[in-house]
Amino acid sequence: MKPARGMTPGDADRLVAALVTGRGPSPDEQVTVWFAELAVGEREITVDQTNRSVVVGDRAIVKWLLHTDAAGHPAPDRLQALLSAGFTAMPRPWGLLHQVDPTSGALKLLAIVTEYLPGTQDGWEWAVADVRAHVRGAESGALTAPIAIGVLTAQMHVALSCTGITDATEAQAQTWYAAAGHDLAEAIALVDGDEGARLRPLESRIKESLHPISECVGTPLIDVHGDLHVGQILRTNAPYAYYVTDFDGNPLQTAVERMQRQPAARDVAGMLASLDHVGRVVIHRTPGVDEAKVVTWIAMAQEIFLDNYREELQRANAEHLLDERLLGPFQVQQECREFVYSVKHLPHWRYVPDAALPALLDRLEAPA
């Protein structure tokens, strides 16, 4: 069985059937089974550009990994940790497919099988719709969704921390600081046009905002989601339920980087940034929208999310997991990454960090 590109029809069906039997589809493959039931009938999902996803029988979704790495993959251990901790705010994991190297016995992850949740939307759909409705005065989940996401994110971090907590070393702090500096330098070098003309004068302010990353020695490190944003939050139809998905980590990082423990603030900052980005999308794509109302929503949503995240950590006696000093710097770094991503992969997206970054710097520099 080929791992992704060039697969033949029926491979996803056969993998689900293999989970039921507990035996790999071919002699050089093995399965890990957490849950299984028979399902047949394939339907490909075409929106995922990083992997190839196939729905089977409207019960399971098989995600074939288009890019595998001998160094490993973060999802298996993350999913096992969440299952062991009783975390349920995710599509139920069914199992994994690994290819076994006949010489070394090393495993290479080929596919991840999870529950398929019919009728759900990701946050780039439901959150944008919610905010549009909210600023027009209609009922929506625009101010209740951040509550659920804050609680969900904290519960996820508490569950992931059960596998262990380590402290950031001086070397790690300097590595992260250097990476943030590299992201800034790359953004400055790549972004042209009006956006580049607005970005370059911000360089010294950005550098100053990133400095706390270099001082995070001793910060608690845990396994994290690694690529947390509203697009990773699925929502069912009313009554709303929220689920976090896709534990592959940041697709722009190496496998080794994606598997390393990180400050919980990395995920929290990613979600804070994406709430801002939802607002920028609404402003950009909604003719006649009241921009001031959207900007007000951004601040409210971020505050609600963060307050509920903190409160849920407190309920779990896990306040120590969040290093507040890193929230601003990591958000700034994320906006630099958004610029780079837009230049390399999604040119029309650059309007988002172009609007978000100056507003973020103003907020971080405002008197307390």
Write up what this structure looks like:
The protein has 368 residues and is α+β, with helices and mostly antiparallel strands. It has 2 domains: 11-115, 2-Layer Sandwich (Phosphorylase Kinase, domain 1); 121-365, Aminoglycoside phosphotransferase (APH), C-terminal lobe (Aminoglycoside 3'-phosphotransferase, Chain: A, domain 2, Alpha-Beta Complex). Helix content is 46%, strand content 14%. It has 12 helices and 11 strands. The chain has helices at 11-21, 75-84, 123-135, 145-161, 170-190, 193-199, 203-210, 255-259, 265-285, 291-315, 327-344, 351-365, and strands at 29-33, 42-45, 51-56, 60-65, 93-100, 107-115, 121-122, 166-167, 220-221, 233-235, 242-244. The strands form 3 sheets. A 6-stranded antiparallel β-sheet has the order 1-5-6-4-3-2, sandwiched between helices. A 3-stranded antiparallel β-sheet has the order 7-10-11, with helices on one face. Strands 8-9 form a two-stranded antiparallel sheet. Helix 9 (265-285) packs across helix 11 (327-344). It is globular, with a radius of gyration of 21 Å. One of its GO terms (biological process) is carbohydrate metabolic process. Keywords: Coiled coil. Residues 299-326 form a coiled coil. GO terms for molecular function: ATP binding; glucosamine kinase activity; metal ion binding.
